[in-house]
Amino acid sequence: MAFSTSLLDLxxxxxxxxxxxxxxxxxxxxxxxxxxxxxxTCQHSLSTGDGKTSVIGQGIARLHGIDPITRKKKVITLxxxxxxxGFHVNLVSYARLKEKGGHWSEEAGYIEYHNAIPIVSLKLGxxxxxxxFDQPGRAPIRTANAVRSSSSPKQSAASAE
Length: 161
Fold this sequence. Notes:
The strands form three sheets. The protein has a six-stranded mixed β-sheet. It is mostly beta strands. It has one domain (about 5-145): Cathepsin D, subunit A, domain 1. It has two helices and twelve strands, in the order βαββββββαβββββ. This is Retrovirus-related Pol polyprotein from transposon TNT 1-94-like beta-barrel domain-containing protein. InterPro entries: PolX-like_BBD. It comes from Penicillium antarcticum.
């Protein structure tokens, strides 16, 4: 019997600059004005787990990622992105991605279109289990693995349910 655990380490100081795939968010959020190619002023607020964050703009933002096949730089354009300079991270809403025909292949580690064409790669982030988009020019996310084997007989079996 073998057990395997993996942990990918992402320093807290760099998380603010990264794009995270969020299955709970209904909107894309970006905290960096320089990532926008088009931005209109607006006044909204986002409800978060522990409060609210001010939104001062909405527009089109760029995500600089890595093509999962060629491993070369790839730019993805996200529309209707909220600009919230005080937000702690950049979010890609999985719900919005699905509306546009995107699908997250967890097994393969990338986002693909409905026709199975890979778009951009993802890596599992820190101990919080965040899915972080690969970014060109960034140090790779560090990985630590632990494996344990046992020669003892199996104590129980999992049910088919």
